[in-house]
Amino acid sequence: MIFRAVMGTGMASVMPWLVTMSLLGFREFAESSGPTAHISQELEAPPPLPQLSPLDFVSPSSVSFNDPAFDNEETPVHVDCDFPSNHKPSNAIIHRAKEKPHGFQIDPNFAPNLQSLQPDNKKNERNLDSFQNGANSNNIAQSSKPNLQPNQVNQSERFFAPGHTFKPPKESGFKDEYAGPAMHLAYYWKTIDYEFDSDEDRNSLIYSGTFIPENNLPLGLEIWKDKIFVSMPRWKKGIPATLATIPTKSHDKSPKLKPYPDWRWHHLGNCQGLTSVFRMQIDECDRLWVLDSGKIDITDDPLQICPPTIFVFDLYTDELIRAYTLPHDQIKEDSLYSNIVVDVRNGDCDRAVAYAADVWRFGLIVYDFHNDSSFRIQHHYFFPDPLSSRYNLHGLDFHWTDGLFGIALTPVDVNNEKTMFFHPMSSFREFAVPLSALRDKKAAEDSPEKFVPVGKPRAKDYGHSSGSTIDRNGVMFFNMVTRDSVWCWDTRKEYIPQNLGVIGSSNVSLVFPNDIRMDHEEDQNVWILSNKLPMYLYGYMNKDEVNFRILRASAKEAVRNTVCDPNYIVPESLPSYDVTC
Protein backbone atom coordinates (compact mmCIF):
# COMPACT_ATOMS: atom_id res chain seq x y z
CA MET A 1 0.00 0.00 0.00
CA ILE A 2 1.27 3.45 -0.81
CA PHE A 3 0.51 6.04 1.84
CA ARG A 4 -0.05 9.61 0.68
CA ALA A 5 -0.13 12.73 2.79
CA VAL A 6 -3.22 14.78 1.97
CA MET A 7 -2.64 18.51 1.75
CA GLY A 8 -4.92 20.71 3.68
CA THR A 9 -6.72 17.93 5.59
CA GLY A 10 -7.29 17.63 9.29
CA MET A 11 -5.97 15.32 11.94
CA ALA A 12 -8.25 12.51 10.81
CA SER A 13 -6.22 12.02 7.65
CA VAL A 14 -2.94 12.02 9.56
CA MET A 15 -3.76 9.44 12.23
CA PRO A 16 -3.77 6.34 9.97
CA TRP A 17 -0.33 7.28 8.71
CA LEU A 18 1.01 7.73 12.24
CA VAL A 19 -0.46 4.41 13.37
CA THR A 20 1.09 2.65 10.40
CA MET A 21 4.48 4.12 11.18
CA SER A 22 4.31 2.97 14.79
CA LEU A 23 3.46 -0.58 13.71
CA LEU A 24 6.63 -0.71 11.65
CA GLY A 25 8.73 -0.49 14.77
CA PHE A 26 10.51 2.77 14.03
CA ARG A 27 9.75 4.76 17.13
CA GLU A 28 11.63 7.95 16.52
CA PHE A 29 11.25 10.15 13.47
CA ALA A 30 12.71 13.41 12.37
CA GLU A 31 10.44 16.28 11.50
CA SER A 32 8.19 15.48 8.55
CA SER A 33 9.20 16.87 5.20
CA GLY A 34 6.35 15.59 3.09
CA PRO A 35 4.50 17.49 0.38
CA THR A 36 3.21 20.07 2.86
CA ALA A 37 6.57 20.62 4.53
CA HIS A 38 9.58 22.61 3.43
CA ILE A 39 11.55 21.53 0.40
CA SER A 40 14.38 23.10 -1.49
CA GLN A 41 13.56 24.79 -4.76
CA GLU A 42 17.20 25.36 -5.68
CA LEU A 43 18.70 21.94 -5.02
CA GLU A 44 16.60 19.88 -7.36
CA ALA A 45 18.45 16.98 -8.98
CA PRO A 46 20.31 18.25 -12.04
CA PRO A 47 19.85 16.95 -15.58
CA PRO A 48 22.49 14.61 -16.99
CA LEU A 49 25.70 16.32 -18.05
CA PRO A 50 26.53 16.71 -21.77
CA GLN A 51 27.62 13.42 -23.27
CA LEU A 52 31.31 13.07 -24.10
CA SER A 53 33.19 10.39 -25.92
CA PRO A 54 35.05 8.01 -23.59
CA LEU A 55 37.96 8.32 -25.97
CA ASP A 56 38.15 12.10 -25.71
CA PHE A 57 38.98 13.31 -22.21
CA VAL A 58 41.37 16.09 -21.40
CA SER A 59 44.59 15.45 -19.56
CA PRO A 60 45.18 16.79 -16.03
CA SER A 61 47.55 19.47 -17.27
CA SER A 62 44.93 22.13 -16.58
CA VAL A 63 44.01 20.88 -13.13
CA SER A 64 43.15 23.79 -10.86
CA PHE A 65 41.84 21.99 -7.80
CA ASN A 66 42.93 23.79 -4.66
CA ASP A 67 43.93 21.36 -1.95
CA PRO A 68 44.72 22.92 1.45
CA ALA A 69 46.59 19.76 2.38
CA PHE A 70 49.30 20.82 -0.06
CA ASP A 71 49.06 24.56 -0.69
CA ASN A 72 47.30 25.76 2.49
CA GLU A 73 44.77 27.77 0.51
CA GLU A 74 41.42 28.30 2.11
CA THR A 75 38.80 25.76 1.11
CA PRO A 76 36.07 27.59 -0.83
CA VAL A 77 32.49 27.50 0.31
CA HIS A 78 30.27 25.06 -1.57
CA VAL A 79 28.30 26.50 -4.46
CA ASP A 80 25.15 24.76 -5.62
CA CYS A 81 25.69 22.85 -8.86
CA ASP A 82 22.92 24.57 -10.78
CA PHE A 83 24.33 28.07 -10.31
CA PRO A 84 27.37 29.88 -11.68
CA SER A 85 30.29 30.33 -9.34
CA ASN A 86 29.42 33.96 -8.59
CA HIS A 87 25.84 33.20 -7.62
CA LYS A 88 24.90 33.74 -3.99
CA PRO A 89 21.65 32.05 -2.90
CA SER A 90 19.04 34.37 -1.51
CA ASN A 91 18.52 34.60 2.21
CA ALA A 92 14.89 33.80 1.50
CA ILE A 93 15.98 30.45 0.18
CA ILE A 94 18.84 29.40 2.46
CA HIS A 95 18.79 29.89 6.21
CA ARG A 96 21.32 28.56 8.63
CA ALA A 97 20.53 27.68 12.20
CA LYS A 98 22.29 29.73 14.86
CA GLU A 99 23.91 26.73 16.48
CA LYS A 100 27.24 25.49 15.14
CA PRO A 101 27.46 22.32 13.04
CA HIS A 102 27.96 19.07 14.88
CA GLY A 103 31.57 18.31 15.66
CA PHE A 104 33.41 15.09 16.30
CA GLN A 105 30.88 13.83 18.83
CA ILE A 106 27.92 11.96 17.42
CA ASP A 107 24.63 13.80 17.77
CA PRO A 108 22.85 12.16 20.76
CA ASN A 109 19.49 12.97 19.17
CA PHE A 110 20.32 11.43 15.82
CA ALA A 111 17.41 9.62 14.23
CA PRO A 112 17.28 8.83 10.52
CA ASN A 113 14.13 9.80 8.65
CA LEU A 114 12.31 6.73 7.38
CA GLN A 115 9.08 8.40 6.39
CA SER A 116 7.07 7.76 3.24
CA LEU A 117 7.64 4.02 3.63
CA GLN A 118 5.68 1.67 1.44
CA PRO A 119 5.59 -1.78 3.08
CA ASP A 120 3.75 -4.59 1.35
CA ASN A 121 3.33 -7.31 3.92
CA LYS A 122 1.70 -9.76 1.52
CA LYS A 123 4.72 -9.70 -0.74
CA ASN A 124 7.05 -9.99 2.23
CA GLU A 125 5.37 -13.18 3.44
CA ARG A 126 6.62 -15.25 0.52
CA ASN A 127 9.73 -17.40 0.69
CA LEU A 128 12.56 -14.98 -0.04
CA ASP A 129 15.37 -17.48 -0.49
CA SER A 130 14.29 -18.82 -3.87
CA PHE A 131 17.82 -19.71 -4.98
CA GLN A 132 18.85 -23.17 -3.81
CA ASN A 133 21.68 -23.95 -6.23
CA GLY A 134 24.64 -23.63 -3.90
CA ALA A 135 28.14 -23.97 -5.30
CA ASN A 136 29.81 -27.35 -4.92
CA SER A 137 32.39 -26.89 -2.19
CA ASN A 138 34.24 -30.02 -3.35
CA ASN A 139 34.96 -28.42 -6.70
CA ILE A 140 35.35 -24.73 -6.00
CA ALA A 141 37.45 -24.23 -9.14
CA GLN A 142 34.34 -24.75 -11.22
CA SER A 143 33.97 -24.67 -14.95
CA SER A 144 33.57 -21.16 -16.24
CA LYS A 145 30.31 -22.28 -17.86
CA PRO A 146 28.64 -24.43 -15.18
CA ASN A 147 25.71 -26.68 -15.96
CA LEU A 148 22.67 -24.58 -15.22
CA GLN A 149 19.14 -25.69 -14.58
CA PRO A 150 16.51 -24.60 -17.13
CA ASN A 151 15.34 -21.76 -14.88
CA GLN A 152 18.83 -20.49 -14.12
CA VAL A 153 20.87 -17.84 -15.90
CA ASN A 154 24.62 -17.51 -16.01
CA GLN A 155 24.71 -14.02 -14.51
CA SER A 156 28.30 -13.33 -15.54
CA GLU A 157 27.48 -13.96 -19.20
CA ARG A 158 24.38 -11.79 -18.97
CA PHE A 159 26.22 -8.99 -17.19
CA PHE A 160 28.94 -8.71 -19.81
CA ALA A 161 26.81 -9.67 -22.80
CA PRO A 162 27.96 -8.07 -26.06
CA GLY A 163 24.60 -6.31 -26.43
CA HIS A 164 25.98 -2.82 -25.94
CA THR A 165 26.20 0.04 -28.40
CA PHE A 166 28.50 3.01 -28.63
CA LYS A 167 27.61 6.21 -30.45
CA PRO A 168 30.29 8.88 -30.02
CA PRO A 169 28.67 12.10 -28.75
CA LYS A 170 28.83 15.28 -30.75
CA GLU A 171 32.08 17.18 -30.37
CA SER A 172 30.14 20.28 -29.31
CA GLY A 173 29.67 18.83 -25.82
CA PHE A 174 31.10 21.01 -23.06
CA LYS A 175 33.99 19.45 -21.13
CA ASP A 176 34.68 20.51 -17.57
CA GLU A 177 37.36 18.89 -15.45
CA TYR A 178 36.47 21.08 -12.44
CA ALA A 179 34.35 19.01 -10.05
CA GLY A 180 33.33 21.73 -7.59
CA PRO A 181 34.75 24.05 -4.93
CA ALA A 182 34.76 21.38 -2.23
CA MET A 183 36.39 18.70 -4.39
CA HIS A 184 40.16 18.29 -4.54
CA LEU A 185 42.01 16.04 -6.94
CA ALA A 186 44.41 13.86 -4.96
CA TYR A 187 45.72 11.40 -7.57
CA TYR A 188 45.25 10.42 -11.19
CA TRP A 189 46.58 7.72 -13.52
CA LYS A 190 46.48 6.82 -17.19
CA THR A 191 47.46 3.24 -16.34
CA ILE A 192 48.38 1.55 -13.07
CA ASP A 193 51.93 0.57 -12.18
CA TYR A 194 53.40 -1.11 -9.10
CA GLU A 195 56.51 -0.95 -6.94
CA PHE A 196 58.40 -3.97 -8.26
CA ASP A 197 61.61 -5.19 -6.68
CA SER A 198 63.51 -4.22 -9.82
CA ASP A 199 63.02 -3.16 -13.42
CA GLU A 200 64.08 -6.66 -14.44
CA ASP A 201 61.23 -8.17 -12.42
CA ARG A 202 58.76 -5.75 -13.98
CA ASN A 203 59.93 -6.49 -17.51
CA SER A 204 59.85 -10.22 -16.85
CA LEU A 205 56.24 -10.06 -15.63
CA ILE A 206 55.23 -8.01 -18.66
CA TYR A 207 56.95 -10.49 -20.99
CA SER A 208 55.16 -13.44 -19.36
CA GLY A 209 51.76 -11.72 -19.44
CA THR A 210 51.53 -11.64 -15.65
CA PHE A 211 51.48 -7.84 -15.79
CA ILE A 212 49.45 -6.10 -18.50
CA PRO A 213 49.30 -2.43 -17.38
CA GLU A 214 46.14 -1.49 -19.30
CA ASN A 215 44.20 -4.39 -17.70
CA ASN A 216 44.67 -3.06 -14.16
CA LEU A 217 41.68 -1.08 -12.92
CA PRO A 218 41.36 0.36 -9.38
CA LEU A 219 37.90 -0.38 -8.01
CA GLY A 220 37.69 0.07 -4.23
CA LEU A 221 39.42 2.36 -1.76
CA GLU A 222 39.80 2.88 1.98
CA ILE A 223 41.76 5.39 4.02
CA TRP A 224 43.67 4.95 7.27
CA LYS A 225 46.07 7.52 8.71
CA ASP A 226 48.79 8.02 6.05
CA LYS A 227 47.66 5.19 3.75
CA ILE A 228 45.10 4.83 0.99
CA PHE A 229 44.15 1.25 0.20
CA VAL A 230 43.20 0.49 -3.39
CA SER A 231 41.81 -2.78 -4.76
CA MET A 232 42.35 -4.15 -8.28
CA PRO A 233 40.05 -7.14 -8.78
CA ARG A 234 41.31 -9.61 -11.34
CA TRP A 235 38.65 -8.75 -13.94
CA LYS A 236 41.12 -9.60 -16.71
CA LYS A 237 44.48 -11.30 -17.07
CA GLY A 238 47.69 -9.48 -16.25
CA ILE A 239 46.89 -8.12 -12.77
CA PRO A 240 49.84 -9.00 -10.51
CA ALA A 241 48.43 -7.61 -7.22
CA THR A 242 44.83 -7.23 -6.12
CA LEU A 243 45.31 -4.96 -3.07
CA ALA A 244 47.84 -2.15 -2.67
CA THR A 245 48.53 1.13 -0.89
CA ILE A 246 49.60 4.66 -1.73
CA PRO A 247 50.32 7.53 0.69
CA THR A 248 47.54 9.96 1.56
CA LYS A 249 49.89 12.83 0.69
CA SER A 250 52.50 12.77 -2.04
CA HIS A 251 54.05 15.20 -4.48
CA ASP A 252 53.83 12.47 -7.10
CA LYS A 253 50.24 12.64 -8.36
CA SER A 254 50.50 9.30 -10.21
CA PRO A 255 52.36 7.14 -7.68
CA LYS A 256 53.16 3.49 -8.12
CA LEU A 257 51.11 1.12 -5.98
CA LYS A 258 52.71 -0.96 -3.23
CA PRO A 259 51.14 -4.45 -2.86
CA TYR A 260 49.59 -5.07 0.55
CA PRO A 261 50.69 -6.61 2.84
CA ASP A 262 53.47 -7.63 0.38
CA TRP A 263 54.01 -9.48 -2.88
CA ARG A 264 53.83 -12.90 -1.18
CA TRP A 265 50.07 -12.48 -0.67
CA HIS A 266 49.30 -12.14 -4.39
CA HIS A 267 50.25 -15.46 -5.98
CA LEU A 268 47.32 -16.45 -8.18
CA GLY A 269 45.89 -19.84 -7.21
CA ASN A 270 46.98 -19.68 -3.56
CA CYS A 271 43.69 -19.56 -1.68
CA GLN A 272 45.52 -18.78 1.55
CA GLY A 273 46.42 -15.43 0.02
CA LEU A 274 44.49 -12.75 -1.85
CA THR A 275 42.82 -13.67 -5.13
CA SER A 276 40.47 -10.93 -6.37
CA VAL A 277 39.63 -8.18 -3.88
CA PHE A 278 36.68 -5.93 -4.60
CA ARG A 279 36.29 -3.67 -1.57
CA MET A 280 37.53 -3.10 1.95
CA GLN A 281 36.31 -1.54 5.19
CA ILE A 282 38.34 -0.21 8.13
CA ASP A 283 36.64 -0.40 11.51
CA GLU A 284 37.15 1.73 14.62
CA CYS A 285 39.48 -0.94 16.02
CA ASP A 286 42.08 -0.20 13.31
CA ARG A 287 41.42 -3.42 11.46
CA LEU A 288 41.18 -3.79 7.69
CA TRP A 289 38.36 -6.06 6.52
CA VAL A 290 39.06 -7.31 2.99
CA LEU A 291 36.32 -8.90 0.88
CA ASP A 292 37.91 -11.32 -1.57
CA SER A 293 35.50 -12.64 -4.21
CA GLY A 294 37.78 -15.51 -5.24
CA LYS A 295 36.58 -15.06 -8.84
CA ILE A 296 38.85 -14.10 -11.75
CA ASP A 297 38.55 -13.25 -15.46
CA ILE A 298 34.89 -12.35 -15.13
CA THR A 299 34.96 -10.23 -18.30
CA ASP A 300 36.12 -13.16 -20.41
CA ASP A 301 35.96 -16.67 -18.98
CA PRO A 302 34.74 -16.41 -15.35
CA LEU A 303 36.38 -18.85 -12.98
CA GLN A 304 35.81 -19.30 -9.24
CA ILE A 305 39.28 -20.50 -8.29
CA CYS A 306 38.93 -19.82 -4.54
CA PRO A 307 35.91 -19.51 -2.25
CA PRO A 308 34.83 -16.00 -1.21
CA THR A 309 36.76 -15.07 1.93
CA ILE A 310 36.81 -12.24 4.46
CA PHE A 311 40.36 -11.37 5.56
CA VAL A 312 40.91 -9.21 8.66
CA PHE A 313 44.29 -7.47 9.14
CA ASP A 314 45.78 -5.55 12.06
CA LEU A 315 46.75 -2.22 10.51
CA TYR A 316 49.47 -1.50 13.07
CA THR A 317 51.34 -4.74 12.34
CA ASP A 318 49.94 -5.67 8.90
CA GLU A 319 49.46 -9.16 10.31
CA LEU A 320 46.47 -11.34 9.48
CA ILE A 321 44.04 -11.63 12.39
CA ARG A 322 41.54 -13.96 10.77
CA ALA A 323 40.48 -15.40 7.43
CA TYR A 324 36.87 -16.53 7.23
CA THR A 325 35.80 -18.59 4.22
CA LEU A 326 32.11 -18.43 3.40
CA PRO A 327 30.32 -21.80 3.71
CA HIS A 328 29.42 -23.47 0.42
CA ASP A 329 25.67 -23.12 1.05
CA GLN A 330 26.09 -19.32 1.13
CA ILE A 331 27.74 -19.24 -2.31
CA LYS A 332 25.37 -19.34 -5.26
CA GLU A 333 26.23 -20.43 -8.78
CA ASP A 334 27.18 -16.93 -9.95
CA SER A 335 27.70 -15.13 -6.65
CA LEU A 336 29.90 -12.05 -6.74
CA TYR A 337 30.58 -10.55 -3.32
CA SER A 338 31.49 -6.95 -4.02
CA ASN A 339 30.93 -4.69 -0.98
CA ILE A 340 31.38 -4.84 2.79
CA VAL A 341 30.59 -2.70 5.85
CA VAL A 342 31.41 -3.39 9.50
CA ASP A 343 29.52 -2.53 12.69
CA VAL A 344 31.35 -2.20 16.03
CA ARG A 345 29.32 -1.16 19.10
CA ASN A 346 30.66 0.53 22.22
CA GLY A 347 34.26 -0.21 21.28
CA ASP A 348 33.73 -3.97 21.66
CA CYS A 349 36.03 -5.12 18.87
CA ASP A 350 35.47 -8.81 19.56
CA ARG A 351 31.75 -8.52 18.77
CA ALA A 352 32.02 -6.82 15.40
CA VAL A 353 29.54 -7.78 12.70
CA ALA A 354 30.31 -7.52 8.98
CA TYR A 355 27.77 -7.28 6.16
CA ALA A 356 28.76 -8.34 2.63
CA ALA A 357 26.66 -7.81 -0.51
CA ASP A 358 26.26 -10.37 -3.29
CA VAL A 359 25.63 -8.13 -6.30
CA TRP A 360 24.93 -10.91 -8.83
CA ARG A 361 22.78 -13.25 -6.77
CA PHE A 362 21.05 -10.62 -4.68
CA GLY A 363 21.90 -11.66 -1.13
CA LEU A 364 23.47 -10.31 2.07
CA ILE A 365 25.97 -12.17 4.24
CA VAL A 366 25.99 -11.37 7.96
CA TYR A 367 29.25 -12.42 9.62
CA ASP A 368 29.59 -12.55 13.42
CA PHE A 369 33.24 -12.06 14.37
CA HIS A 370 32.76 -13.31 17.95
CA ASN A 371 31.15 -16.60 16.95
CA ASP A 372 33.11 -16.87 13.70
CA SER A 373 29.95 -17.77 11.82
CA SER A 374 27.74 -16.30 9.12
CA PHE A 375 24.33 -16.63 7.51
CA ARG A 376 22.83 -15.48 4.25
CA ILE A 377 19.57 -13.62 3.81
CA GLN A 378 17.65 -12.59 0.71
CA HIS A 379 14.91 -10.08 0.12
CA HIS A 380 13.21 -8.91 -3.05
CA TYR A 381 14.47 -5.38 -2.33
CA PHE A 382 17.94 -6.75 -3.09
CA PHE A 383 16.92 -7.47 -6.68
CA PRO A 384 17.54 -5.14 -9.63
CA ASP A 385 14.66 -3.15 -11.06
CA PRO A 386 14.14 -4.25 -14.68
CA LEU A 387 12.98 -0.72 -15.50
CA SER A 388 16.27 0.69 -14.19
CA SER A 389 18.69 -1.69 -15.90
CA ARG A 390 19.47 0.47 -18.93
CA TYR A 391 22.60 2.62 -18.65
CA ASN A 392 24.02 5.30 -20.91
CA LEU A 393 27.42 6.82 -20.24
CA HIS A 394 28.97 9.23 -22.72
CA GLY A 395 27.45 7.49 -25.72
CA LEU A 396 27.97 3.96 -24.39
CA ASP A 397 24.58 2.27 -24.03
CA PHE A 398 24.40 -1.01 -22.09
CA HIS A 399 22.23 -3.05 -19.74
CA TRP A 400 23.28 -4.31 -16.32
CA THR A 401 21.18 -6.35 -13.91
CA ASP A 402 23.15 -5.65 -10.74
CA GLY A 403 21.40 -6.25 -7.46
CA LEU A 404 22.34 -5.28 -3.90
CA PHE A 405 25.42 -3.08 -4.01
CA GLY A 406 25.40 0.15 -1.99
CA ILE A 407 25.29 -0.44 1.78
CA ALA A 408 25.93 2.17 4.48
CA LEU A 409 25.38 2.28 8.25
CA THR A 410 24.09 5.27 10.22
CA PRO A 411 25.52 6.38 13.57
CA VAL A 412 23.79 5.01 16.67
CA ASP A 413 20.42 6.74 17.03
CA VAL A 414 18.37 7.77 20.08
CA ASN A 415 17.17 4.18 20.53
CA ASN A 416 20.71 2.76 20.53
CA GLU A 417 19.96 1.39 17.07
CA LYS A 418 21.69 1.63 13.72
CA THR A 419 20.03 1.59 10.33
CA MET A 420 21.42 0.05 7.18
CA PHE A 421 20.55 2.01 4.05
CA PHE A 422 20.99 -0.03 0.90
CA HIS A 423 20.18 -0.10 -2.79
CA PRO A 424 20.67 -2.30 -5.83
CA MET A 425 22.94 -0.84 -8.47
CA SER A 426 20.22 -1.18 -11.12
CA SER A 427 17.59 0.76 -9.21
CA PHE A 428 16.61 4.36 -8.54
CA ARG A 429 15.31 3.61 -5.03
CA GLU A 430 16.84 3.58 -1.55
CA PHE A 431 15.83 1.03 1.10
CA ALA A 432 16.44 0.60 4.82
CA VAL A 433 16.44 -2.00 7.57
CA PRO A 434 17.32 -1.69 11.29
CA LEU A 435 20.35 -3.76 12.24
CA SER A 436 18.35 -5.35 15.05
CA ALA A 437 16.43 -7.19 12.33
CA LEU A 438 19.71 -8.70 11.09
CA ARG A 439 21.17 -9.85 14.41
CA ASP A 440 20.51 -13.51 13.58
CA LYS A 441 19.00 -15.54 10.76
CA LYS A 442 15.73 -16.16 12.60
CA ALA A 443 15.22 -12.45 13.30
CA ALA A 444 15.85 -11.64 9.65
CA GLU A 445 13.49 -14.32 8.35
CA ASP A 446 10.76 -13.47 10.87
CA SER A 447 10.85 -9.72 10.15
CA PRO A 448 10.71 -9.20 6.37
CA GLU A 449 8.45 -6.20 6.95
CA LYS A 450 11.36 -4.39 8.61
CA PHE A 451 12.89 -4.00 5.14
CA VAL A 452 11.29 -0.84 3.78
CA PRO A 453 11.58 1.51 0.80
CA VAL A 454 12.56 5.03 1.78
CA GLY A 455 10.98 8.12 0.29
CA LYS A 456 10.81 8.43 -3.48
CA PRO A 457 13.08 7.54 -6.41
CA ARG A 458 16.19 9.71 -6.36
CA ALA A 459 15.69 10.67 -10.00
CA LYS A 460 13.21 10.29 -12.81
CA ASP A 461 15.81 8.72 -15.08
CA TYR A 462 19.45 7.69 -14.86
CA GLY A 463 19.38 7.56 -11.08
CA HIS A 464 21.90 4.71 -10.77
CA SER A 465 24.04 4.86 -7.65
CA SER A 466 27.06 2.72 -6.86
CA GLY A 467 28.68 3.10 -3.45
CA SER A 468 27.41 5.12 -0.49
CA THR A 469 28.81 6.13 2.89
CA ILE A 470 27.54 8.01 5.96
CA ASP A 471 29.57 10.38 8.14
CA ARG A 472 29.38 10.76 11.92
CA ASN A 473 26.69 13.44 11.58
CA GLY A 474 24.35 11.15 9.68
CA VAL A 475 24.93 12.68 6.23
CA MET A 476 25.04 10.19 3.38
CA PHE A 477 27.30 10.69 0.36
CA PHE A 478 26.69 8.56 -2.71
CA ASN A 479 27.98 8.25 -6.26
CA MET A 480 25.67 8.85 -9.21
CA VAL A 481 27.46 6.84 -11.86
CA THR A 482 25.38 7.81 -14.90
CA ARG A 483 25.32 11.50 -13.94
CA ASP A 484 29.07 12.03 -13.42
CA SER A 485 28.42 13.38 -9.93
CA VAL A 486 28.48 12.82 -6.18
CA TRP A 487 25.32 13.58 -4.21
CA CYS A 488 24.46 13.92 -0.53
CA TRP A 489 21.47 13.44 1.75
CA ASP A 490 20.89 14.32 5.41
CA THR A 491 19.33 11.10 6.70
CA ARG A 492 17.16 13.11 9.13
CA LYS A 493 15.22 14.48 6.17
CA GLU A 494 12.84 12.70 3.85
CA TYR A 495 14.42 10.94 0.89
CA ILE A 496 12.98 12.97 -1.99
CA PRO A 497 14.76 14.71 -4.90
CA GLN A 498 14.38 18.14 -3.28
CA ASN A 499 16.36 16.97 -0.24
CA LEU A 500 19.29 15.62 -2.26
CA GLY A 501 22.29 17.86 -2.82
CA VAL A 502 25.25 17.71 -5.20
CA ILE A 503 28.77 18.09 -3.80
CA GLY A 504 30.67 17.47 -7.01
CA SER A 505 29.98 17.12 -10.73
CA SER A 506 32.29 16.78 -13.73
CA ASN A 507 31.97 15.03 -17.06
CA VAL A 508 35.74 14.56 -17.06
CA SER A 509 36.94 14.03 -13.47
CA LEU A 510 33.91 12.08 -12.26
CA VAL A 511 33.20 9.73 -15.15
CA PHE A 512 31.68 6.73 -13.36
CA PRO A 513 32.50 7.53 -9.71
CA ASN A 514 32.66 3.97 -8.45
CA ASP A 515 33.69 3.81 -4.79
CA ILE A 516 33.23 6.30 -1.96
CA ARG A 517 34.45 6.17 1.64
CA MET A 518 34.73 8.34 4.74
CA ASP A 519 38.10 8.54 6.43
CA HIS A 520 38.53 8.28 10.20
CA GLU A 521 39.94 11.72 10.95
CA GLU A 522 38.38 13.99 13.58
CA ASP A 523 37.22 16.28 10.77
CA GLN A 524 36.12 13.69 8.28
CA ASN A 525 36.78 13.75 4.56
CA VAL A 526 34.88 11.90 1.89
CA TRP A 527 37.04 10.16 -0.72
CA ILE A 528 35.86 9.22 -4.21
CA LEU A 529 37.39 6.93 -6.83
CA SER A 530 36.28 7.34 -10.46
CA ASN A 531 37.42 4.75 -12.98
CA LYS A 532 35.37 4.71 -16.24
CA LEU A 533 34.42 1.10 -15.50
CA PRO A 534 32.05 0.55 -18.47
CA MET A 535 34.68 1.81 -20.92
CA TYR A 536 37.15 -0.65 -19.37
CA LEU A 537 34.73 -3.57 -19.58
CA TYR A 538 33.62 -2.97 -23.16
CA GLY A 539 36.99 -2.05 -24.65
CA TYR A 540 36.69 1.73 -25.01
CA MET A 541 39.38 2.71 -22.52
CA ASN A 542 42.07 4.97 -23.95
CA LYS A 543 45.36 4.31 -22.16
CA ASP A 544 46.77 7.60 -23.43
CA GLU A 545 44.21 9.59 -21.42
CA VAL A 546 43.72 9.93 -17.68
CA ASN A 547 41.31 7.15 -16.70
CA PHE A 548 41.45 6.84 -12.91
CA ARG A 549 41.15 9.56 -10.29
CA ILE A 550 40.94 9.81 -6.51
CA LEU A 551 39.28 12.95 -5.17
CA ARG A 552 38.59 14.14 -1.65
CA ALA A 553 36.35 16.71 0.02
CA SER A 554 35.86 17.92 3.57
CA ALA A 555 32.53 16.47 4.67
CA LYS A 556 31.58 19.68 6.51
CA GLU A 557 32.61 22.04 3.72
CA ALA A 558 30.99 19.91 1.04
CA VAL A 559 27.51 20.25 2.58
CA ARG A 560 27.81 23.72 4.13
CA ASN A 561 24.76 25.86 3.27
CA THR A 562 23.18 23.04 1.28
CA VAL A 563 20.10 20.95 1.94
CA CYS A 564 22.45 18.23 3.25
CA ASP A 565 23.74 20.45 6.07
CA PRO A 566 22.28 19.18 9.39
CA ASN A 567 21.76 22.85 10.34
CA TYR A 568 20.03 23.74 7.10
CA ILE A 569 16.38 24.83 7.40
CA VAL A 570 14.50 23.65 4.34
CA PRO A 571 12.36 26.45 2.86
CA GLU A 572 8.92 26.06 1.39
CA SER A 573 8.58 25.17 -2.29
CA LEU A 574 6.39 26.71 -4.92
CA PRO A 575 3.06 24.90 -5.43
CA SER A 576 3.85 24.24 -9.09
CA TYR A 577 7.21 22.59 -8.46
CA ASP A 578 7.64 19.29 -10.30
CA VAL A 579 8.99 16.82 -7.76
CA THR A 580 10.45 14.57 -10.45
CA CYS A 581 13.81 15.25 -12.02
UniProtKB/TrEMBL annotation:
GO cellular component: extracellular region
Intracellular or extracellular location(s): Secreted
Alphabetical list of InterPro entries matching this protein: 6-blade_b-propeller_TolB-like, MRJP/yellow-related
Assigned keywords, A-Z: Secreted, Signal
UniProt main location, coarse: secreted
Pfam families xrefs: MRJP (PF03022)
Keyword Signal part of the UniProt annotation: yes
Similarity comment text for this entry: Belongs to the major royal jelly protein family.
Protein name: Bee-milk protein
Lineage, uppermost ranks: Eukaryota, Metazoa, Ecdysozoa, Arthropoda, Hexapoda
